[in-house]
Design goal:
The chain has 208 residues and is an alpha/beta fold. The protein has six helices and nine strands. The protein has two domains: 105 residues, 3-Layer(aba) Sandwich (Rossmann fold); 87 residues, Rossmann fold (3-Layer(aba) Sandwich). The strands form two sheets. It has a seven-stranded mixed β-sheet with strand order 3-2-1-4-5-6-7, with helices on both faces.
Length: 208
Amino acid sequence: MSGSICLGILLSGRGSNFLAIAQSIRVRSLPGVEIAVVISNVADAGGFKAAAELGIPHKLFVSQGRLRAHHDAEVIDCLKNYNVDLVCLAGYMRLLSPQFIAAFPNRILNIHPSLLPAFPGLEAQRQAFEYGVKIAGCTVHFVDEHLDHGVIILQRAIPVLETDDAHSLAARILVEEHIAYSEAIARVTSGKYEILGRSFLPRLKALP
C-alpha cells in the first residue's frame, strides 16, 4: 500500500477501539492513514454516534432480519464507494460472509480480547479468567472464513493479577487493545511484511 490509506471501520457497539484509532490518526501516530467511513449494523451504537460527532462519514446498515448475503453486499458496495483500502472490525458483532472476505483479501483486520488461539468467541476475557490463566491479552489478526482464526499480526500480553476479577481483567485488556490496533494498522499499511503460511513476517522493504 502506498499514498493515503483509507480505513473502513465496522462496529456494533461503543466503538472504543475506533476512537483509539481516530486518536492515533489525530496525533499522527498513523501518518498517511485516514478513516474514510464508519459503518454500523446497530442504529444506536455508541461508536456510530461518536463518528457523527467527529464529523467522520458514517453509514447505517441494519442487519437484523436481513439475509447475510444481501446485507454484506450493501456494506461491500459502501466500502468500495469510499475507496477503502483496509477494513477494521472494531467490535463488529457479525461473522463476515465468504463474499465479504473475498472482496478484501488480507485487508480485513479484527481485534480479539485474548491471546489466540486461546478463548475464541464471545466473553473471551471471562473465559480466560475462569480458566485460571496467568497471562492474558489481546490479538490483532487478519480475518478469514473461520471465527477468530486468521493470521496473527501482533499480540499484547498482561499478567492476571491476584486482585483481578473478570471485569477488571477485561478493563486492563482493553487498554492493550487500544495500543495494539494502531500498531497493527501501522504494520499492515507500511506494506513491509509478507505472509508465509500462518506467519506474519516483517520485511525491511515493502513487497512490490
